[in-house]
Amino acid sequence: MKFDAVVIGAGPAGSASAYTMAKAGYKVLMIEKGSEPGAKNVSGAMIREAVISKVFETKDLPFERIVKRVRLIFKTRENETEISVKPKDKLYTIARLKFDKWLAQKAEGAGAVLITKTTVTGIEGQKVITERGEIEAGKIVIAEGANALLSMSLGLRRELRSEETVLGIKEVYASTRDEVAKRFGLQGDEGESWRIITDYPLPSAGFIYTYKDAVAIGIGAKVDEITQRDIRPFELLDTFKEPYSELIKGFSLREYSAKIIPENGFPSFKPCEGSIYVVGDALGLVDPLTFDGIGPAVISGHLAGKAESCNAYSNSLYEASEILKVMRSRPLTRELLKGDNLSLYIHLVTDFSLSWAEGDLSKLKYYKNSLGTILKHLLLGLEVVQ
Amino acid sequence: MRVEERLYTLRYKRDEKPHLEIKDQANCAKCYDTYKSPCITVCPANVYSFTEGKIVISYENCLECGACKIVCPFNNIIWRYPRYGLGISLRYG
Ligand SMILES: Cc1cc2nc3c(=O)[nH]c(=O)nc-3n(C[C@H](O)[C@H](O)[C@H](O)COP(=O)(O)OP(=O)(O)OC[C@H]3O[C@@H](n4cnc5c(N)ncnc54)[C@H](O)[C@@H]3O)c2cc1C
Ligand code: SF4
Ligand code: SF4
């Protein structure tokens, strides 16, 4: 069998690519190993509507809640500081199974053919090999996610190292819509997102997202920190969750999941070769500070779908603001997570708030020696917001 | 809460053919002594255990997260995806 294009993986990157090519009149096949799109995929998750709507019509996007407040929490073992932000952009919380299915349906609606329960086991020249047979493809888009077995087998990229990989783990606690609203003080479709940065028991980034009738709670930490400090991922999650136990008291655990998050990638991973294109997490396109990866996945998938050549795709990645943001965030994140830098900041923020509250800013003199470091990070930070 | 209780919440369909395999158990024995087998530490689903001088893999519990392969100092894990839509199926994700 022959298709103009074969897309491997029906996540956000794959569906965006298949949708773009099908709309342009190509005969497209999308192959997904899961029982249905989204069944194997893990996110928090929060998305920015403005990014998704660059590619898809979002009127019927199956969101969980509309985020009215984002709480940023800096936590040390002893103390914490919270900053509450009312987002100007439209932010949604989503659950991946519903969201990924919706995206895949958009691609099918545009004419792409989707087959599920089929794993691609290899690529040879223009042949895509699955356990059910082979397909000839004019163009191949690899949208296989962070554990990029195919891209690696083709030599387009290497394996991630443990110091550039985060392991995200997550639980979903379900109750009723009213109970979720009550606990967070929400009305109607309103939702809330919490991002928590802590250095205890190891540097990690946690999140709490409200779904319609459930709460998602999870944490990400660097894989090398987990192994070096010999802390099991679920112990880390339990330590993180403990202070929030009242929030989910009486709710029932519905799901436990985990996935790696890449903190490195394009341009050090090759985005394409000949007529084979790599998109999304497989190309390492996740913002390492916020875990924002669905937007870049959709954008890169779309760009690969549109591109007439490898060169054109590569250039278009450099021109896309969502992709640039990811590339610019990496040096800052690397710096922040180096040695004790993260601890320095979390303590600075919490001590600052505490001494401000207590009316004694002289406590902050301990930070004088760190001024050089802080300035350097400030400059790197300016790169990110540029 | 125990890991097993968390895994009970999940829908799995078992692929008879293990999707994870060890290349060389001799490396695991060495690794257990020298590096304390990082695959055991990092795995969120207790898939790996070291019993009677060997690594045993309960692959049917795997969350397909991808972490074990990255931490293995001997590149000793053959990691494939389950076939035909088998393995884990999430409801939320
Ligand atoms: C804990 C956690 C929280 C996160 N929170 C957020 C968040 O709040 N917001 C956000 O934007 N991002 C978040 N992310 C990141 C986000 O999940 C990813 O960036 C995003 O899923 C990338 O999309 P993708 O399409 O590239 O890959 P994926 O979503 O991983 O999709 C890859 C698809 O390919 C399929 N596949 C893989 N190999 C094969 C094969 N050989 N044959 C057939 N099919 C195959 C898979 O089954 C899957 O469906 C989070 C990640 C984690 C782990
Ligand atoms: S980390 Fe690798 S070598 Fe070590 S015990 Fe695990 S599989 Fe064996
Ligand atoms: S992929 Fe994840 S869940 Fe599966 S065995 Fe490896 S570490 Fe454990």
From TrEMBL, chain A:
It holds the Pfam family Pyr_redox_2. SUPFAM superfamilies: FAD/NAD(P)-binding domain. Residues 4-150 form the FAD/NAD(P)-binding domain. Its cofactor is FAD. Keywords: FAD, Flavoprotein, Oxidoreductase. It comes from the Archaea. This is NAD(P)/FAD-dependent oxidoreductase.
TrEMBL record, chain B:
SUPFAM superfamilies: 4Fe-4S ferredoxins. The keyword Iron applies. The keyword DNA damage does not apply. It comes from the Archaea. Residues 53-82 form the 4Fe-4S ferredoxin-type domain. Keywords: Electron transport, Iron, Iron-sulfur, Metal-binding, Nitrogen fixation, Transport. To ferredoxins from P.putida and C.tartarivorum, ferredoxin I from A.vinelandii, ferredoxin II from D.desulfuricans. Could be a 3Fe-4S cluster-containing protein. This is Ferredoxin-like protein. It comes from Sulfurisphaera javensis.
